[in-house]
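User: I've been going back and forth on whether these two constructs are worth ordering. Before I decide, could you fold them both?

Assistant: Sure. I'll take them in the order you sent them. The first construct and its structure tokens:
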Amino acid sequence: MKSRDFNDKPTSNGKLYYTVILLIIIAFFFGIFAEKVTSLMESIDVVNRDRSVAEFQQTVSAIRSKWLQKRRTNVTLDIVEGSQLIKKGSVSFRVNARGHVIGLQNGSNFDCQQLWSSVQSQPWSASLHADTILIKEEVVGCRYKVTEQDYLVYDSKNGQVYLLPIH
């Protein structure tokens, strides 16, 4: 039996074998990497969603707190920016008799998209959709959806913000 010298070049069958093994290893690591990236992206979505809901709730609470001071139908909040809290402008909201937001002062109708944009530091996203909630033809709040799944509900009767589970 003839022994093979390490300096011998591999045959074409050997090259094919090593290439297939290398491709399998690369595919395996790519699969692990893709799973980790997908998991990370889902975590980022959850954090952004929670932050968005918290920001919505905080702004609605701030509007009501300001209303409690003077009990007027219009409440103005300052828009601040940065860690030095530099005043960038202000937004005026219309509130109901209980001090809950029912729209913007300059808006004639209850516009859920405009409300979202005014109480969030985040711009309106193409994946978001807003529906006005009506009971007996009276506007009672907004239902926000992300990619056609319910996401958040704002009830203007009691000022509550409800986070809905996304499946």
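The second construct, handled the same way:
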Amino acid sequence: MSKKQKVIVKISVGLNIALIALVAWGYMRINFVKQQILVTEVQTNLVELEGLISNQVAHNWSEPNLVTVELGDVLNGIWHGITSGGQLGTLSNHDKNILSKLYNKLSQFPHDELYKFADLTSEDKENYEELQKKLREVGLGLNIAVSGDLFITQIAELVEKIEVPLQ
């Protein structure tokens, strides 16, 4: 092999290694984005929802709109997770199906819409209190250690526990 061919092979190997590293880095970034969206937009909001329901129960539902606004944030986060995960190609069909089921089940609860607060009946408050218990049962509550690795499993458990239609 001539000196010129050796240089070309070395450059080719170097460029291939750089390309592989670039692809791996991009893949890790996309997965990181997916995880961050699910954690910040869904998991954290579900934990906050559980805490707000608990707070409202303790204060005799003095500000029920705090709960309905937070549920709206949860629903928006789920939708954002489904759409961005689908567009990035990082959300499996199984995970997308579970998140879609959760979205549909949580949509049954009264939640705020743009420029309109939801009014809660005593039955709605009881349903929210049941939701709060179910969130704690699956490990999504204040003062409970949460894990991003178990999140989809927790969501699957929650989907099974929420009855359709609401009582």
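Notes on the second construct follow. The radius of gyration is 22 Å. The longest helix spans residues 3-58.
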